[in-house]
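TICKET: design request
STATUS: open
ATTACHED STRUCTURE:
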């Protein structure tokens, strides 16, 4: 049941708000194309340094008296539509706020079980849709579609927060129903990102727990009727039809039972072309593919589906036979390129491997050359790694190859320890397969580019991408070793090393992995550990790349001071660009929102946040004033918080 401070007043505020569509932020990426470019220019390079906090609102979840709240991660990008801001929380609550003041208009609470321990206890935002066939003022004419972590999709009346009774079961569709592979426990199947609505069809993906079993929950993408919640179509990224041209790329008796290959990040859509663009994840399990030999087409791909039917129009695989957890975490950006006086519809897909693929939006054909290059073979019995992988002609983002002689540390002892660790690992550059010996994986499973994705300045033809520059250690271990570790942990024995273990049931092996850190707790890879990069797509060159953030909060101040540029921060969260020539990005662990010059990469401003802004910011205009908002409460090393922080230029005094 929704709780409303003043539902009647809220409804009036929504109805009476003067339309300013240029000043709105109507979808996660500003619109369904997802390029994250705003035409607003009141805040520009000449005055951004004057930004100050206009208002701060709390979702109220940081103070909840439950143990699991430490794992909550506030990653939502708020929307501003029809004079109201809509924000979602890790617990699936939806708040309607006054975008001028942050005052709450209504709250919807789906009553998620707070004791559950999801792998990613987060929510990245909602979708808002106008039913043009409904009468003005009718309930749910403007609908908010909200994802809930426990795999519910909820439809709410935008004016009051009341569930839309015609949609599903009194406003709710349970996404666990009808899956080819059903989840075995609640936390194995989640919903963390907003859907996209195309011509009355709500298209939604899912998040699947990694590395549990070969037949993990299946990653079907589904289209539901936006009015009734009736299922329109289902598309399975693991082909179930022998006539599908991708069927033969899944080999072995268990291959077509494979799960995951899901779409957990944000989708993009081109309504005029009836297309929805689906970035897919790696198949299950992530690090051993002996039960699913072949390229595994549609997994670790960007797939264009017909939005009205779910039919595959084209697909482009970014990683063949993914055994690195190199899923497509970045939302695709649908952009228009200028080439020889022509306007070309394109898709930009950034990847954890540090590639930036640019494809024709209608056909999937590369608009920037892509080369298949030989990569290392697997030495694990039963595994067959793909012999080649695709490489874009655009500059590499992040790490690709690093020798043991390049090991980094603040002291000689740290460098020697890191060098010894790296020397003992298999390391033949990017796409070195996981091994029983242990493999140096760079970029790590965090990326490279990550779910922060791409922002694109259409006027200047510049793509901006936040990047991680970290390596990981991945090792396959025997089932007996895994069972021994589990038994020791159950007995409360202290284990050396910050290893994450996963069972990978149905395979001969379990997996363990960790970020490659030296004895001092800092990465063995050279700083900066996080950057912001700009690629000029008119020339194909790197325009600039600068350190993003610092490791303040992770390392002592004297260590931070000793690092060049503060080390650069591991980062999660996206950037946006504006007509004012400004790039805004949070994402770092040092609790800041930053502004950069789009043409030079020079940092222009930094605003303090109460917790890390592990989210993508947004900007909007209302009452003639431009605002910039970010969610601050990324969880974990980003710090606990539940704040929605909004900045603006100082208000002009009334005369």
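STATUS: resolved
RESOLUTION: sequence designed for all positions
ATTACHED SEQUENCE:
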């Amino acid at each position: 049941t929704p709780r409303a401070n003043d539902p009647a007043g809220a409804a009036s505020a929504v109805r009476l708000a003067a339309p300013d569509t240029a000043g709105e932020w109507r979808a996660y990426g500003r619109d369904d194309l997802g390029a994250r470019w705003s035409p607003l220019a009141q805040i520009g390079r000449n005055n951004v340094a004057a930004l100050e906090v206009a208002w701060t609102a709390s979702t109220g979840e940081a103070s909840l008296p439950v143990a699991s709240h430490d794992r909550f991660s506030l990653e939502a990008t708020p929307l501003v539509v029809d004079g109201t801001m809509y924000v979602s929380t890790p617990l699936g609550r939806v708040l309607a706020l006054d975008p001028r003041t942050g005052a709450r208009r209504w709250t919807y609470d789906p009553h998620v079980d707070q004791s559950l321990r999801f792998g990613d206890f987060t929510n990245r935002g909602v979708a808002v849709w106008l039913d043009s066939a409904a009468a003005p003022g009718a309930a749910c004419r403007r609908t908010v579609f909200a994802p809930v972590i426990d795999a519910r999709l909820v439809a709410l009346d935008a004016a009051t927060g009341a569930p839309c009774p015609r949609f599903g079961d009194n406003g709710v569709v349970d996404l666990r129903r009808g899956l080819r592979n059903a989840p075995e426990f609640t936390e194995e199947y989640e919903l963390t990102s907003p859907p996209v609505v195309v011509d009355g069809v709500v298209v939604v993906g899912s998040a699947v727990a990694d590395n549990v079993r070969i037949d993990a929950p299946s990653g079907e993408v589904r289209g539901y009727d936006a009015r009734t919640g009736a299922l329109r179509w289902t598309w399975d990224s693991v082909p179930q039809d022998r006539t599908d041209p991708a069927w033969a790329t899944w080999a072995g008796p268990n291959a077509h039972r494979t799960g995951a290959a899901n779409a957990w990040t944000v989708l993009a859509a081109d309504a005029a072309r009836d297309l929805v663009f689906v970035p897919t994840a790696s198949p299950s399990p992530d690090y051993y593919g002996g039960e699913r030999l072949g390229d595994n087409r549609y997994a670790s791909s960007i797939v264009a589906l017909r939005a009205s039917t779910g039919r595959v129009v084209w697909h482009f695989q970014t990683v063949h036979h993914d055994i690195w957890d190199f899923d497509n975490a970045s939302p695709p950006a649908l952009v228009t390129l200028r080439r020889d006086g022509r306007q070309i519809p394109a898709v930009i897909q950034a990847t954890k491997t540090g590639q930036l693929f640019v494809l024709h939006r209608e056909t999937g054909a590369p608009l920037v050359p892509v080369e298949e290059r030989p990569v290392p073979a697997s030495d694990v019995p039963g595994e067959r790694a793909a012999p080649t992988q695709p490489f874009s002609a655009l500059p590499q983002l992040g790490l690709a190859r690093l020798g043991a002689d390049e090991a980094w540390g603040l002291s000689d002892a740290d460098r020697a320890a890191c060098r010894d660790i790296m020397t003992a690992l298999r390391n033949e550059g990017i796409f070195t397969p996981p091994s029983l010996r242990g493999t140096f994986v760079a970029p790590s499973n965090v990326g490279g580019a990550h779910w922060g994705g791409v922002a694109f300045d259409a006027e200047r033809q510049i793509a901006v991408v936040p990047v991680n520059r970290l390596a990981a250690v991945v090792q396959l271990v025997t089932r007996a070793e895994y069972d021994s570790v589990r038994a020791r942990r159950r007995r409360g024995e202290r284990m050396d090393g910050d290893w994450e273990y996963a069972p990978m049931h149905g395979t001969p092996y379990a997996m363990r992995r960790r970020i490659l850190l030296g004895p001092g707790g800092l990465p063995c890879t050279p700083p900066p550990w996080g950057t912001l990069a700009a690629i000029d797509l008119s020339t194909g060159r790197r325009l600039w790349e600068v350190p993003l953030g610092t490791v303040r909060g992770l390392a002592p101040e004297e260590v931070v001071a000793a690092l060049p540029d503060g080390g650069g921060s591991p980062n999660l969260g996206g950037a946006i660009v504006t007509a004012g020539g400004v790039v805004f990005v949070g994402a770092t662990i040092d609790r800041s929102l930053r502004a950069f010059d789009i043409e030079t990469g020079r940092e222009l401003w930094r605003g303090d946040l109460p917790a890390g802004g592990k989210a993508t910011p947004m900007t909007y205009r209302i009452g003639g004033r431009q605002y910039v908002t970010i969610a601050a409460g990324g969880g974990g090393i980003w710090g606990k918080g539940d704040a929605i922080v909004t900045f603006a230029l100082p208000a002009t005094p009334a005369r």
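CLOSING REMARK: The mean pLDDT is 94. The first strand starts at residue 3 and ends at 4.
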